[in-house]
Amino acid sequence: MAAPVGASVQSRYLRCPFLGEVNGLRVSGVSTPRAAVVRKIVECKESRIGKQPIAVPSNVTLTIDGQDLKVKGPLGELALTYPGEIKLDKEDGGILKVRKTVETRRANQMHGLFRTLTNNMMVGVSKGFEKRLQLVGTGYRAAVEGKDIVLNLGFSHPVRMEIPKSLQVKVEENTRIIVSG
């Protein structure tokens, strides 16, 4: 039985010679139907999402204090604390760049994540978000009653949910719900 790809060949094939690398893979000379292949550790690459600059809208105020970012705009205020692997750089022209301070796998993962979180903060405090929902089903309908949304979804009773203060909910034609905030 050959070792699975990515497994260590040292335990089972301790006496087998190492044949070298082929296209970034280490190949070991093993007398099995197929050679045992061990993946080589790949160098961390820069995140495709993380390297994109973030445009800061003119109606948004940024405050960078070490690893903390505070964003204030017409629709509210948000804050985010960055891990030590990530650094924020504000450039002229209203551009914000998220950079890695170390080259590790975790830093690469955090790079794209925190760039996206930062961009979503900018959109959230300047334009806001909107989601349109469509109820599909016989007899399904929705209504807004005061601070609650009431959904008739086929249960024996209507489902009531309180609308959070930061959201606005509109119902069109009893089956279309628009959530914004």
Automatic annotation (TrEMBL):
Of which family is this protein a member?
Belongs to the universal ribosomal protein uL6 family.
Keywords, alphabetical: Ribonucleoprotein, Ribosomal protein, RNA-binding, rRNA-binding
Q: Name one GO molecular function term.
A: structural constituent of ribosome
| Any coiled-coil regions, as ranges | none
Q: Does the keyword Nucleotidyltransferase apply?
A: no
Q: Which GO terms describe its biological process?
A: translation
Kindly provide the name given to this protein in its UniProt entry: Mitochondrial/chloroplast ribosomal protein L6
Describe the location of the Large ribosomal subunit protein uL6 alpha-beta domain by residue ranges.
56-128, 136-181
Among the entry's GO cellular component annotations, what is one?
Answer: ribosome
